[in-house]
Amino acid sequence: MRPSKRQPDEMRAVSFERGVSKHAEGSCLVRFGDTHVLCTASLEEKVPAWLRNSGKGWITAEYGMLPRATGERTRREAASGKQSGRTLEIQRLVGRSLRAVVDLTALGELQITVDCDVLQADGGTRTAAITGGFVALYDCLAWMQARQMITIDRVLKDHVAAVSCGICEGVPVLDLDYAEDSAAGTDANFVMTGSGGIVEIQGTAEGAPFSEEEFQALLALARKGIARLIELQKMAVL
Amino acid sequence: MRPSKRQPDEMRAVSFERGVSKHAEGSCLVRFGDTHVLCTASLEEKVPAWLRNSGKGWITAEYGMLPRATGERTRREAASGKQSGRTLEIQRLVGRSLRAVVDLTALGELQITVDCDVLQADGGTRTAAITGGFVALYDCLAWMQARQMITIDRVLKDHVAAVSCGICEGVPVLDLDYAEDSAAGTDANFVMTGSGGIVEIQGTAEGAPFSEEEFQALLALARKGIARLIELQKMAVL
Amino acid sequence: MRPSKRQPDEMRAVSFERGVSKHAEGSCLVRFGDTHVLCTASLEEKVPAWLRNSGKGWITAEYGMLPRATGERTRREAASGKQSGRTLEIQRLVGRSLRAVVDLTALGELQITVDCDVLQADGGTRTAAITGGFVALYDCLAWMQARQMITIDRVLKDHVAAVSCGICEGVPVLDLDYAEDSAAGTDANFVMTGSGGIVEIQGTAEGAPFSEEEFQALLALARKGIARLIELQKMAVL
Amino acid sequence: MRPSKRQPDEMRAVSFERGVSKHAEGSCLVRFGDTHVLCTASLEEKVPAWLRNSGKGWITAEYGMLPRATGERTRREAASGKQSGRTLEIQRLVGRSLRAVVDLTALGELQITVDCDVLQADGGTRTAAITGGFVALYDCLAWMQARQMITIDRVLKDHVAAVSCGICEGVPVLDLDYAEDSAAGTDANFVMTGSGGIVEIQGTAEGAPFSEEEFQALLALARKGIARLIELQKMAVL
Amino acid sequence: MRPSKRQPDEMRAVSFERGVSKHAEGSCLVRFGDTHVLCTASLEEKVPAWLRNSGKGWITAEYGMLPRATGERTRREAASGKQSGRTLEIQRLVGRSLRAVVDLTALGELQITVDCDVLQADGGTRTAAITGGFVALYDCLAWMQARQMITIDRVLKDHVAAVSCGICEGVPVLDLDYAEDSAAGTDANFVMTGSGGIVEIQGTAEGAPFSEEEFQALLALARKGIARLIELQKMAVL
Amino acid sequence: MRPSKRQPDEMRAVSFERGVSKHAEGSCLVRFGDTHVLCTASLEEKVPAWLRNSGKGWITAEYGMLPRATGERTRREAASGKQSGRTLEIQRLVGRSLRAVVDLTALGELQITVDCDVLQADGGTRTAAITGGFVALYDCLAWMQARQMITIDRVLKDHVAAVSCGICEGVPVLDLDYAEDSAAGTDANFVMTGSGGIVEIQGTAEGAPFSEEEFQALLALARKGIARLIELQKMAVL
To answer: Do B37 and B119 touch, CB atoms closer than 8 A?
Structure first.
């Protein structure tokens, strides 16, 4: 039995609250159970130096966690003067995942920054950030389309969402919360598109190495969970 | 006429949403109109080095703003590697203001950190942070009282709240929003207690210097606004 | 009786020593008793990015303290790798105060940086920095006028000076030295112009909140002290 | 045909040169073709704070790249003042991978730091670092065993090695060099143990998402490559 | 003819103004012509970690330059967030030079920090810092002797002073000012003791390499200049 | 007798291994006994800001040490976030030394960065870096000449090499290794050209000051050692 009483293949309650920011071109407060991430998509008329005059745009992401998003207060990264390796790793992953479904040439020489700030953490913040970040990005593109800047269908090639899976007390389970995440022997994050393509797989043995069979079980769970997340995204952005 | 159609002595809608964090000992999402600040109070069993073995505790505050809390995206302080002068100035002010109503000896050798993170900014973030931070602090102390760690009435000497005032097109007005704040010739922040004592006054001429009469008008408005805020705090923490 | 035997409304001996720097366009070593601040005004042919091609100039200030300006040696900010919140707060205040009496359009697209470095500290370093910084700025403008770059009377709209006041053992006193500053229950800094306009008020309750009456007493003292400082400035720059 | 004329399942020439450092307890210069990584294992009588008095030891890794290890000179991280996200990500991976085969309790309260410095880069530096880092670690443990500090067989539970695979022009290939890595549509790194357990999988779609079938092909290649690397490790440390 | 009309072996006017700091245990404002360096010696009851419980003390130095000490304003190191290589190099040199004449065991487990802050620069700031730093250190030791903490004669083994020499338009000259320093083909700094021992020699060819004969000429000039500086030090501390 | 059994005027075995980097325009692994420094020379089509449009080029150097190049592991500078004073001092010295033999106008508006990374340290790393850095620079210039970009003979005015000398147990000795360096009372580094000109002299008394006679003995040893190093350089680059 999972600590949360869920079935092994059962996700937490997932919701997308759109338009939560007065200022951002797109925004979404995504909740995976008690994990709450505020995602905003900001459009800027600039691109990184290496893309100038290329006609191509850029999608980037930043990730942060409020100091008391966690059970114990964590030191504020702005105060310690640098972003941790974990933060940098996650925001690189979020950016790559979102870019995987965007045609940067169709976007034009513009940059969209997706900020994912964890208001409350209970495991799976990076997968929530990708899944909710997509919705914020979608709304930013809709804002642009409403102003005849782009055509969404040409810029956005597919949906993208992410989920974590792990092996807890020998059982492969879907969408780990913090209690499970801390105890899991193996922990894997999967990012996939609406058409079932794989964008990213990150599997890590926290304790003993895992077998190929175990990995295949996690992959199957992830496929199921992501299909569900993409359904929910589609309902959210209808 | 003010941009928001308010009367000169009319505050924005103010609300306190308590218990918004699963983890923090005290928390409050305070709204002054479109300015939304998430305040959490975190209890830690440590004090700054200069208080060790003194028997006294400490209240400190940190302040942050999500990158897209503002009309234009602001660079993330964690990414730029340091907190701006404005951030440091505000968090020092919030900490001083809250300490003004706390008996640090009655608290005992413990530290409470009040994190004030601006989710959305529309002027007056520092005054909202102080006013909402008080509620988070109150709830943290209530949490401690429930565990027989302290007696609230001995630790908390009074309420404290803050409001900004300014002179806009020659008229003294209460509780500036961003549109007024940008245009105001004079801008002042006041921090006062429930019994009417003054904790902090910060008045700045943005353009032409202001007269003593103008300043007195701002002070009178502030007194009125803060009395109202403290009424609302009292209703919130009943 | 004050530790320095001064009357409540008596300032310390104040002096301005001009032309102390061989290199700077304007310079002044200001002394408020044992508080000594070396102020230099440096003219540069550049302005901050947001003013480029605006035709307007800029006045900015930086503040520093030699490590042994204080009773105990303080860590050198260059060695610790960042300026403290206190430093940033003070230099922002000095810059705002000086800009309050300057017509930036009449200055033209040039920048003057006023560096205020505390050689010896005995309370009131920020008010000495503003008061002496004005003299350095004046001399820089005189240097420019001598070269037909500007007309002082069009650039400089008024004098500006600053003083601190506080309530020590229940008595409102003018121009706190370090011994008083450490013990004062309330501490306020005032910045005013030659014509009596208020540029900045910062009042802080260090211990118990203060009353409106107490604040008015401090304001009256400050008005008197600043009038005297501006007289001295005028004698200095004749 | 691959740029290097290799077969799809053919690795580059791999060699381990042991004992290359006069000072380190263990060291290995590992070469995967033109990728050369100098690995040293340093024993220290300290552990991270959270392990003090736990009786358990720690294995950690750091990663760096000489500025001209690459085709274009890269800025020195010591000069830019921080380690990039990529560097932090890699050194966290190397540390996790090595810890996966070590019994930290059997090690005792000691720390071994494995430094992996890339002298020359031609793709696959992180997989070379893990594979060669294991040899340096082994030699450090042998050094300790020779001094009766530990028994290798109790500390080291298995071998561990890593390899990258990718899909280049539609063909799954093993052990990408830089030319392939830049062009690959999909790039994956695998870390496995001598007994075939999986320690880490990182698969990333650089362009189009990849299918499950493609991923399985990469996994099969990796299994083959890692088995070969572990054979070579065993020959090296005989 | 030198720009300053001095003879080749003529130093600038040198003066030592002692006791310039109200707070420091020892202090000296040293002037080598228009180069003015404020030196303070601060006694602290702590030593670097590697000397704890050794019974030995430590002498260290820090160096800084006010932003407008120079002809053009230099960026404040506290604002740029780090000390330049030049600053670090100079303060290491000052520390080494002073330690060369101190018996650290006789000092006891205490630290004296000599801060050398350049108020005005006109060439030779490092040599003025060493020469004036010695006087500040002497006065700090005298302060300690007056409190029966040490015996000066046991702690201080000799005098130490420094001077620069260079070859300007083919002529070896003593004590370069800024005009000469910028134009000199060769520039050398010498640190020597009262008894004529050499503590440090730093000679650098700015343009063409110099010959051994030229170097010997500089060394002879330095010997003469330092003898004179030590005479002046002795008069100053009598 | 020296720890290494060498005669006082005997250098360690010195070798230059050229072409060790696949990528760099010039490279050299220089060995002075157990001190091994990897030097690469990288050509870039940019110059520092102050040389733009001057027609002149620039030679600069950077220095680093692998963490376990030393007997005890040293903290990685990239991790600590800054280069130490020692590192900055050395890389400034290497750059100055190499520029002393280059005609920057004949080079044209290009920059060559010589990176000197110590793989293993046993004393004398800076002198090895200069001596081996010259060979890397030479090979970079040869690479450029082969592409008709420059004529070596016009760019390179002479050879340059460096060696350390010291007084160990009263005896002047040449080319100190770590054991001697730690114990030496006096330590001096000399940089000279092929034609015998002196580029840099740095002599430091670690303990007691040294006499002029001692210094002359060190200079004579250095002259001999550098003549030998330049012979070896010439054989290496033939």
So the answer is: yes
CA nearest E34 in C: which residue? C22
Residues 6+ apart with CB under 8 A from E34: C22, E12, E120, E122, E177
> Could you tell me the two tokens for C119?
């050689």
CA proximity to C179, closest of C16, C1, C4: C4
pLDDT over 90 (residue F89): yes
R_g (Cα) of chain F, nearest Å: 18
**Which among C32, C36, C73, C114 is the top mutation candidate for probing chain E, defined by the most E β-carbons within 10 Å of its own β-carbon?**
C73
Residue C106 pLDDT level (bands cut at 50, 70, 90): very high
What is the reported pLDDT for A206?
A: 78
pLDDT tens-digit profile of F142-163? 999 999 999 999 999 999 999 9
- Mean of pLDDT over chain F: 96
Q: How far apart are the first and last CA of chain E?
A: 36
Torsion from C-alpha of C125, C128, C134, C135, nearest 10 degrees: -120
By the 8 A CB rule, do D134 and D26 touch? no
Asked if B170 has any chain C CB less than 8 Å from its own CB, the reply is no
- Chains touching chain E through at least 3 C-beta pairs below 8 angstroms are C, F
CB C196 within 8 A of CB B88: no
Question: Cβ contacts of residue A1 below 8 Å, gap of 6+?
Answer: none
Do the Cβ atoms of B38 and A115 come within 8 Å? no
Confidence band for B183, pLDDT divided at 50, 70 and 90: confident
DSSP string, A206-218: SSS-B-HHHHHHH
What average pLDDT score do residues A114-136 get? 98
pLDDT in tens, F67-79: 999 999 999 999 9
Residues E68, C23: C-beta atoms closer than 8 Å: yes
In this structure, the dihedral spanned by the alpha carbons of residues A16, A17, A19 and A21, taken in order and rounded to 10 degrees, is -110
Q: What is the ipTM of this complex?
A: 0.95
Interface probe for A, chosen from D198, D213, D219, D226 (most Cβ of A below 10 Å), is D198
Please report which residue ranges of B55-124 form alpha helices under DSSP H. Answer: 77-80, 85-99, 104-107
What is the rounded average pLDDT of the residues A93-121?
97
Taking an 8 Å cut-off on Cβ atoms, the answer to whether B42 and A73 are in contact is: yes
Asked if the model's pLDDT at residue D207 lies above 90, the reply is no
User: Are C197 and B209 within 8 A, CB to CB?
Assistant: yes
Q: Which residues contact C6 (CB under 8 A, 6 or more apart)?
A: C12, C173, C175
Picking from B42, B69, B76, the nearest residue to A68 by CB comes out as B42
**pTM to 2 decimal places:** 0.91
Encode burial over E119-134: b for 16+ CB neighbours within 10 A, e otherwise.
bbbbbbbbbbbbbbbb
